[in-house]
Amino acid sequence: MFLTLRIIHIIAGVFWAGAMFFMVSFLMPAFKDVGPDGAKLSAALANRRLFVWMPVMALITIVAGFGLYGMRMAGGGWAATMEARILGIGAVAATIAFIVGVTVTRPAMMKADALSKALGTMPAGGARDAAQATVNALRKRSMMGSRGIATLLLITLATMAIARYA
Q: Per residue of the chain (166 residues), what is the pLDDT tens digit?
């Protein structure tokens, strides 16, 4: 069971962290560069269910990680080791990253996507400009949340890399 959980944890975690780093480093800046045309790409990503897969993979990663942590805790005095403490820090960082993702970043992206679609049917003028300003603000909020998530995941990855050697 431990090995299966470890494989699930690693594969889901690689997906989650890798996708976040790609989005923060390349995809979201590209959205900013292309302006309103980014709505087409965002819609294509939504159609491929990226905004569903990201929180699912994050949740799988966290649940598997806590399962692994619990199995190690059952072994006795492991909880008092430096390895357990360092992995605990990583677990907290990943959990906060997940919470930020589902409460800040994903809702902002979903609202921006829906409003971007509506922009296509709006006539030029004040209402359209206001809606575009809202989309821009939502994208900025999403980018800030995503950067925070990426930073927390970097901390998580670092703790997992060094915990065994502490």
A: 899 999 999 999 999 999 999 999 998 888 888 877 777 787 888 889 988 999 999 999 999 999 999 998 887 788 889 999 999 999 999 999 999 999 999 999 889 888 887 877 778 788 888 888 898 899 899 999 999 999 999 999 999 999 999 8
- Taking the C-alpha atoms of residue 15 and residue 54, their distance in angstroms, rounded to an integer, is 8
- Count Cα atoms within 13 angstroms, Cβ side, for 149: 31
Burial letters 61-93, b for 16+ CB under 10 A, else e: bbebbebbbeebeeeeeeeeeebbebbeebbeb
Angle at 69 between CA 65 and CA 70, to 5 degrees: 115
